[in-house]
Write a structure and sequence with these properties.
Layout: H1 4-16, E1 20-27, H2 31-39, H3 41-47, E2 54-60, E3 67-73, E4 79-90, E5 94-103, E6 109-120, E7 123-132, H4 135-145, H5 147-164
Antiparallel strand pairs: 1-7, 2-3, 3-4, 4-5, 5-6, 6-7
Length: 165
């Protein structure tokens, strides 16, 4: 029998389903290793972003209230600015931040982003969740920035990062 908190959580998730994007992947690597790949600037530059993209990190302070400023460079030369403020960092379970970003000229993406790191024996289940203010904002980001495809490609690159080691 579900308790009141479980029912509220389900209601909250249902209430936001039309304005969120969720991607889940299981990695054949321990949670601490996945956490390190995410929080170490020397590792994250090797896999962050869709295929063909590179990233320059201007600042990365992974702690509540810390900021992460970066620029993703697309293969066509387009620059995508990302300004993040971390709202939660619970090692090695969860990272959450507020994202403001997009193409340099219009910087029109705003979302609450969370990454959940779940240990599954020697493997890790990683869930990326982006919550947008409205369904229209999510749809615009999906169309303009291909956030679902890009998120999947980024997680493919993270998997490749561990294979290349």
């Amino acid at each position: 029998m579900a308790n009141a908190n479980t029912e509220k959580l389900r209601d909250d998730e249902t209430a936001t389903a039309d304005r969120e994007m969720v991607i889940t992947r299981v990695f054949d690597a321990p949670r601490d290793m996945i956490w390190a790949a995410w929080t170490d600037p020397n590792q994250i530059v090797k896999w962050w972003g869709p295929h063909g993209f590179t990233i320059t990190i201007d600042e990365m302070d992974v702690r509540p209230g810390g900021v992460w400023k970066s620029t993703m460079h697309g293969p066509d030369g387009t620059q995508y600015l990302n300004d993040c403020v971390f709202t939660e960092v619970t090692k090695p379970e969860r990272i959450a931040y507020k994202l403001s970003g997009g193409r340099k000229e219009d910087h029109d993406v705003n979302a609450e982003v969370s990454w959940i790191f779940e240990a599954q024996g020697a493997k890790t289940k990683l869930t990326l969740r982006m919550l947008f203010a409205t369904a229209e904002a999510r749809d615009r980001s999906a169309k303009t920035y291909k956030v679902v495809e890009s998120g999947n490609e980024m997680l493919d690159r993270l998997r490749e990062h561990f294979v290349k080691g």
